[in-house]
User: Which sequence fits this backbone?
C-alpha cells in the first residue's frame, strides 16, 4: 500500500500525509481519490473552483469537516460503500450539487453537512444513522425528495429549514422533531401510525392565523431544543375546533 510519511504533493495535486488526504492543489474538473486514502482531511478541497465530479473510494472511512466546503461547481459526488462518517459542513454551500446517494455504510452525517446546497433535488439517507443532525439540509431550496430511513429517532433543529420545495416527508412515528426542523408548508407523514399533525387546506382563509397559532406551539416546545413527539402536535381536529370557534 502506498502512503506518505510527510506532507507530500503527488503529480495529481493531492497533498497526503500517511493515508490522510490533507489538501488538493490540482485544477482538474473530475477527481478520483487514490485507493489507499482512508480519510479526507478538514477543508481538503475547500473552495476548489474547478471541481465538478469526485469519486470517493470505499477505503475512505471519514469525509472530514468542511472537506468540500464552497466547491461551487461540484455537481456529482460518488460515495462508495465503506465510508462511515460525513463530518460537519462537509459539503456546505456546494451550490451545483444536484443529487446525493449516501451508502448504508455511513453511520453519521454531520451538522450542516449539506446546508445551502441550493441545487440539491434528491437525497437518499443511509439506513443506520440515528437521526438527522442540526442544519443538515438548511436552505436546500430545490430539495423535493428525501428518503428517510425507518429507524431514525430524531430530526435536529432547523434540519430542513428553508427547504421551500419540499412538499412532503415521511418519518417514523415517534421521531423527535427539532424546532423549525421542517417547513410549515411541508406535509409530514408517519410510518406505523396515522398522522395527526396539522395539514390544513392551503386555500383556507384562516390558514395564516392558524399557522401563527401553530408556531406558538413550536416556540413553547423548542425550549428543550426538540419539538415534542408526533402525538403532541396540533391535530387536524384541533384545527377544526379552532376554526369553528373563529366562526362563533
Assistant:
Amino acid at each position: 500500500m502506498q502512503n506518505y510519511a510527510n506532507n507530500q504533493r503527488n503529480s495529481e495535486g493531492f497533498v497526503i500525509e500517511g493515508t490522510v488526504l490533507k489538501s488538493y492543489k490540482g485544477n482538474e474538473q473530475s477527481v478520483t481519490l487514490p485507493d489507499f486514502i482512508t480519510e479526507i482531511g478538514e477543508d481538503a478541497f475547500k473552495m476548489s473552483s474547478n471541481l465538478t465530479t469526485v469519486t470517493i473510494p470505499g477505503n475512505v472511512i471519514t469525509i472530514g469537516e468542511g472537506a468540500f466546503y464552497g466547491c461551487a461547481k461540484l455537481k456529482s459526488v460518488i460515495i462508495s460503500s465503506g465510508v462511515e462518517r460525513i463530518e460537519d459542513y462537509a459539503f456546505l454551500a456546494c451550490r451545483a450539487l444536484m443529487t446525493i446517494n449516501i451508502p448504508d455504510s455511513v453511520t453519521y452525517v454531520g451538522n450542516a453537512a449539506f446546508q445551502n446546497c441550493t441545487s440539491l433535488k434528491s437525497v437518499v439517507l443511509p439506513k443506520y444513522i440515528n437521526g438527522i443532525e442540526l442544519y443538515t439540509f438548511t436552505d436546500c431550496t430545490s430539495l423535493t425528495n428525501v428518503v428517510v430511513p425507518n429507524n431514525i429517532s430524531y430530526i435536529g433543529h432547523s434540519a430542513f429549514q428553508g427547504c421551500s420545495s419540499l412538499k412532503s416527508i415521511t418519518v417514523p412515528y415517534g421521531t423527535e422533531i427539532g424546532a423549525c426542523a421542517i417547513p410549515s408548508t411541508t406535509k409530514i407523514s408517519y410510518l406505523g401510525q396515522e398522522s395527526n399533525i396539522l395539514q390544513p387546506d392551503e386555500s383556507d382563509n384562516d390558514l395564516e392565523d392558524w399557522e401563527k397559532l401553530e408556531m406558538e406551539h413550536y416556540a413553547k416546545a423548542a425550549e428543550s431544543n426538540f419539538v415534542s413527539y408526533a402525538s403532541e402536535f396540533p391535530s387536524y381536529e384541533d384545527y377544526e375546533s379552532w376554526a369553528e370557534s373563529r366562526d362563533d
The helical segments are 207-221, 236-247. The domain at 4-247 is CATH 3.80.10.10 (Leucine-rich repeat, LRR (right-handed beta-alpha superhelix)). The CA atoms of residues 94 and 140 lie 10 Å apart.
